[in-house]
């Protein structure tokens, strides 16, 4: 957790510097759908904790429950409350843009967290803070190439169709794989909607269809472990390299057991702290780049000791 | 009306024997369609009819199938149960989460008890309060979803020691070379089919679903009958949760999302009428298997997952239309 400590330290430093400069900041956050998955749930509690640790911040925490209309209403409420900055985890990268434009017009800086919004909305936001999902796909492709020694036939179990994270990971993976590993062929991709049971079913069908599968790339570890379950059930797990993303506790354990080759370490705690930090930097008048990616390193058996087991 | 329709058949097909052929086709249409698609799929994929693929499909279909057995009883009794999908999520999260906390046996008992309780609430509201089953179970669907989120706080649940627990037998075990989920599906289907066809209880459910007023006048306690169908449905969901939880060795809040539609699709496809009072478990088993094979076939042919939804929709509409067309014809011929 090297990242976490540096971030916490910088938050502390910042609170020391800005406390004298300006009064406490009121920051409003509207999240996508807390409670629907472990990542978002952990994100919320990490955000709360980071805000509590900082005397210079007062937060209004809202949750859209996955509903775009509700999220737009929440943004409007935050504008009415005259908060100093709005952090939004968009429920839909397109539909929230008009609300963000209103905030922009009201002079309230908007920070988009975790999932990107459509290009058309970029002019209304101060910054984006989150994981670089294209880069994650790239990293996974490199791991796959290393693991297979540049030769083989693989399948992909992707996330929910139409979901930006899923598309970006697939895109990064496919493009990079073609570059670094022309000898590895991606024979088929099927979505499994971030659902482990569906991933298991998809993989069972892959195993029937292809007698020869050397590797599986899954859009997250939850699905990756589903695919691993299927291969174990068919007694074919031994010869297959499993690589995922968003390291889950089950994936972490599978890497420890040597059944799972690697994943991408993406901590919701880092995600939440980076979002708050970006907002504070902007309020402090610092020069902040438009796109802020927090680090999401590769994790394999070789370096697993450097990472804490994810809580989800 | 009747003569006019028969007349037009003669005009269209020339001879009466051909209209007999047509009625055979429309009566067995789904089965014929199924066989045809099996042939088509096997042209495109040599693995399609392989033993291992057939076993995989039947195993995958068994979770839907187990639930469909219960829901068929509810439908024969003249009601609907749309809450089974989120009930499945609830029961699976429960049994997986409790497994490590209180041990598998207690976890399974608690899961069955709580799932049956949810079924009892459905049954009470529909059977005794006489509320519309569509509304009651739809409301239950979202209520349970909320309940799961409160219970799990949104976290995924997992069984820590996956290889060291006998709980794995329900989803991953084999009995005499047959996967346990398939065995559970078959045993449930056979028992419920026997109960529905050969016991007075089964006949009462048919009577209540077919003509509730006549059923009441002939001394059947309709409220209790309806109530009991929801208990059967909940029991089947609990069995399915056992299989699902053990198969995945983990669960997430929305794992059963959309299952209610797949279950209904299987039932309708088999030919059980949504109007109640008719149908059989046997038909549901066929319907669920057809659905499973078509979805698997599309995947083997390389179509993305969501083409299945479109195709499923088309097949359901076809099935409902055939059902209706048959009924109309039967009505017309008995009147003439």
What are the main properties of this structure?
heterodimer; A: 312 residues; alpha/beta; Rossmann fold; 2 domains; six-stranded parallel beta sheet; four-stranded parallel beta sheet; elongated; disordered N terminus; B: 336 residues; mainly alpha; ABC transporter involved in vitamin B12 uptake, BtuC; 15 helices; 4 strands; 2% strand; globular; cell membrane (chain B); transport (chain B); transmembrane transporter activity (chain B)
Describe the secondary-structure layout.
The complex is a heterodimer of chains A (312) and B (336).
Chain A: H1 2-21, E1 25-31, H2 38-52, E2 57-63, H3 68-80, E3 85-88, H4 97-105, E4 110-113, E5 127-130, H5 133-148, E6 152-158, H6 164-180, E7 184-191, H7 196-209, E8 215-218, H8 221-233, E9 241-243, H9 249-257, E10 262-264, H10 268-283, E11 291-293, E12 298-300
Parallel strand pairs in A: 1-2, 1-3, 3-4, 4-5, 5-11, 6-7, 6-8, 8-9
Antiparallel strand pairs in A: 10-12
Helix pairs in contact in A: 1-10, 2-10, 3-4, 5-6, 7-8
Chain B: H1 2-13, H2 16-27, H3 29-44, H4 51-76, H5 84-102, H6 104-128, H7 133-152, E1 157-158, H8 169-172, E2 174-175, E3 178-179, H9 180-198, H10 200-210, H11 212-217, H12 222-248, E4 250-251, H13 259-270, H14 281-300, H15 307-335
Antiparallel strand pairs in B: 1-4, 2-3
Helix pairs in contact in B: 3-14, 4-9, 4-12, 4-13, 4-14, 5-6, 5-7, 5-12, 6-12, 9-10, 9-12, 10-12, 13-14, 13-15
């Amino acid at each position: 957790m090297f990242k976490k400590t540096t971030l916490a330290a910088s938050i502390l430093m910042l609170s020391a510097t800005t406390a004298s400069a300006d009064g406490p900041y009121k920051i409003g956050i509207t999240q996508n759908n807390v409670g629907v998955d472990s990542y978002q749930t952990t994100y919320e509690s990490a955000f709360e904790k980071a805000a509590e640790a900082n005397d210079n911040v007062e937060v209004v925490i809202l949750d859209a429950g996955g509903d775009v209309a509700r999220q737009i209403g929440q943004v409007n409420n935050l504008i009415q409350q005259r908060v100093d900055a709005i952090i939004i985890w968009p429920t839909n990268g397109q539909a929230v843009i008009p609300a963000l434009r209103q905030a922009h017009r009201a002079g309230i800086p908007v920070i988009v967290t975790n999932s990107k919004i459509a290009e058309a909305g970029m002019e209304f936001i101060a910054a984006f803070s989150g994981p670089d999902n294209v880069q994650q796909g790239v990293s996974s492709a490199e791991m796959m190439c290393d693991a297979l020694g540049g030769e083989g036939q693989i399948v992909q179990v992707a996330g929910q169709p139409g979901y930006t994270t899923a598309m970006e990971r697939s895109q990064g993976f496919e493009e990079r794989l073609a570059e670094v590993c022309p000898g590895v062929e991606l024979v088929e991709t099927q979505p499994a909607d971030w659902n482990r049971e569906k991933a298991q079913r998809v993989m069972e069908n892959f195993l029937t269809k292809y007698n020869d599968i050397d590797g599986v790339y899954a859009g997250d570890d939850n699905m990756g472990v589903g695919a691993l379950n299927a291969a174990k059930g068919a007694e074919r797990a031994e010869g297959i390299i499993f690589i995922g993303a968003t390291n889950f506790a089950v994936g972490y354990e599978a890497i420890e057991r040597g059944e799972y080759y690697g994943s991408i370490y993406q901590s919701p705690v880092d995600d939440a702290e980076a979002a708050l930090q970006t907002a504070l930097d902007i309020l402090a008048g610092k020069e902040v780049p438009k796109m802020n990616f927090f680090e999401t390193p590769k994790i394999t058996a070789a370096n697993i000791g450097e990472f804490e087991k994810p809580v989800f | 009306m009747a003569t006019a329709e028969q007349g037009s058949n003669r005009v269209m097909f020339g001879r009466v024997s051909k209209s007999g052929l047509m009625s055979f086709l429309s009566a067995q249409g789904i089965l014929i369609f199924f066989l045809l698609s099996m042939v088509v799929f096997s042209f495109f994929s040599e693995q399609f009819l392989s033993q291992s693929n057939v076993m995989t499909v039947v195993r995958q279909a068994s979770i839907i199938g187990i639930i469909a057995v219960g829901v068929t009883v509810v439908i024969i009794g003249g009601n609907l149960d749309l809450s089974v999908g989120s009930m499945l999520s609830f029961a699976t999260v429960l049994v997986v989460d409790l497994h490590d906390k209180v041990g598998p046996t207690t976890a399974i008992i608690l899961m069955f008890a709580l799932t049956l309780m949810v079924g009892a609430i459905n049954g009470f509201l529909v059977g005794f309060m006489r509320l519309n089953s569509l509304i009651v179970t739809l409301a239950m669907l979202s209520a349970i979803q909320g309940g799961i989120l409160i219970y799990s706080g949104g976290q995924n649940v997992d069984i820590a020691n996956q290889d060291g627990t006998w709980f794995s037998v329900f989803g991953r075990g084999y009995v005499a070379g047959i996967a346990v989920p398939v065995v559970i599906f078959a045993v449930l289907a056979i028992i419920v089919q026997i109960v529905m066809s050969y016991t007075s209880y089964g006949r009462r459910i048919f009577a209540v679903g077919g003509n509730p007023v006549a059923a009441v006048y002939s001394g059947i306690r309709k409220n209790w009958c309806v109530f009991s169908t929801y208990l059967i449905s909940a029991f089947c969901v609990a069995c399915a949760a056992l299989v699902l939880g053990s198969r995945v060795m983990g669960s997430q809040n929305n794992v059963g999302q959309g299952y209610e539609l797949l279950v209904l699709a299987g039932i309708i496809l088999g030919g059980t009428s949504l109007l109640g009072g008719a149908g059989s478990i046997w038909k549901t088993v066929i319907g669920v298997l057809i659905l499973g094979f078509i979805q698997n076939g599309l995947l083997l042919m390389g179509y993305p997952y969501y083409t299945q939804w479109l195709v499923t929709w088309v097949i359901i509409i076809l099935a409902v239309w055939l059902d209706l067309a048959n009924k109309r014809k039967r009505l017309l011929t008995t009147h003439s």
